[in-house]
Amino acid sequence: MNSNDTTARLLDLRQLLTRASAAYFVDAAPFMTDQEFDTLLAELASLEAMHPELDDPNSPTKRVGGAPLEGEFETRAHRAAMRSVDNTYSIGDFRTWYQRCADGLAGDAPALFADPKVDGLAISLRYENGELTEALTRGDGLRGDVVTNNVRAIRAIPLKLRAPQRESWSGIPAVLEVRGEIFMPVREFERINEEREKHGEQLFANARNSCVGTLKNKDPKIVASRRLSFVAHGRGEGEGLPALASHSEFVAYLKELGVPVSPLGARYESVDAAACAIEEFADKRASLDFAVDGMVVRIDRFDLQDALGATSKSPRWAIAYKYPAEQGETTLLKVDWQVGKGGTITPRAIMEPLKIAGSTVKHATLHNIEEIQRRDLRIGDRVIIEKAGEIIPQVVRAVIEKRTGSEQVIEAPTACPACSAAVEREGPKIFCGNPSCSARFRERLKWFVGRDQMNIDGLGEEIIDALVDAGLVKDFVDMFRLEATLVARTLAKGEKALAEVEKKGPGKRATALIESAADAAKSRGLTRVLAGLGIKHVGATAAKTLARRFRSADELLGATEEQLAALEDFGEITAKSLATWLAGTEAKRIFAELASVGVDLNSCEPKPVEVGTNAFAGKTFVVTGTLEHFGRSEAIEILERAGAKVAGSVSKKTAVVVAGAEAGSKLAKAQELGVDVWDESRFIAELTAAGLK
Q: What is the DSSP secondary structure assignment for residue 461, as one 8-state letter?
């Protein structure tokens, strides 16, 4: 085969394999077997190795995955928020939701679109000029993890959009964000568990958890090997799209572009027809090759969706009908009382193993002693278990008619199960009052090193337990002294403790992993430290508010109760509790010791800008089009630093739209609403005037 023939064969194989993926995942009309696909893929890889000058990042061979990710996943803001959908559990409540929508539309009876609620991991795929450029997990709805490399390894997700055949939809959009669900097919879940069982490895609990764990793996090759799939169900930002009047049209458009959509989605002209479809689907979902826990129903027309709007968490125009949770019966063997990071002691049921909703259940929450008494649960009872949302196991009730008389009443503990200190009671809650309780500290430490706090990578629960059990970590500050401590302890007490830690670090010394991770954590800043210490009433949001107002730990230690109460979302109770903690010796000790090992206790948050001090503070901006002197992310960061709020879509609340070249529908919407529009030169001029450029 000469060079020209080789090149032609290479290009033909790329087109053929791309068409084969679309035929399988989008059109449900496969024309080759998996074995044939793999054989041709291997041939293509061989030809590409011979012709590196023909490299294409969107080649089907690139799906086998690149180099493993070093460090943590980057987080990035969503251009348009990924809101969750409210749930309903009865047809009556579903009809009530529909009537509320109809009333909000002046009595109109809008058509609906319904499709299965696939149980997987929500994802946002961003295509620019037809090419996949970014994939973000839902995260908290405002920011998500960048998992682009892993998503590129999923064959069901197109790397390039195909040109629509319908004439009125011709052309590729400049920007298209597709929201959907990545999931693991049941047959793939079963195949992986069979392989893990053969190798003596722990089995995955269920397909959803396995899917999430796979996508968060730092090696794209593992993602590629597990054959995840994808189905689209919504939209984010878009520019250069054709005029689409409804969600049903949008779904059809996605299919034209080569994006997988559910073949089970359908438009219904009435609420009666949709209710009937929901009830009929209840029996069909068990036969599907993927987990489904409900149906998502939405008002079909986009203009009616816009009219109904959204709350801060959920759109008013959509609802998820959740099918009743699967139940099973087992025996309650005992109750363990566990100590949390705040000292709360909560009961956990230990039961005979029971397979339910695709996973084996041995434990379930019992909430508190009053719930146990209200349900009259006893040790030895036969109990009904269900998985709330098919995820969290719960004890529903005791099967009292099956009691034999040997069952034992469950008593609340009078002493802490970890440190034996006397417990305190506040209503249904039981607390360990000992601030030095080992179990309480253990849970606080697990929280402190967690991803959303200090993010000390590589420290799972078992490693932390080993460190605490060996006496290597007795305080937060010890996490940053591990090198010297490990050496000293290992020399004095032998290798047992170190061996326990190193079980989790195959191929690397766990000590090196911990040391490097802890060093990186030192620079996280005051917000993460405050969020990680487990201070009562201080979570991530409150920590950020504090770090914006008080620029260092020393400044915070001098804060008065009045200053704290004046902060946004800080009430009297939170202010009083925090002021008391800051005035105590414990706060001063913790901050002093963290500072002594080099932990940064200064704020990384942008300084607050008073409304009216510049053209940006307190106003809502939207950025659209291509800016010559700024990337989109850079422009958003500058606006937020100036005190502006940045939104992903134009509405009546928008103050200014910054419009670059090729600005599309957002610019048109701004002009329609009379929103102020700045070109890039005006944007730069305003930044300069505000001292930000």
A: H
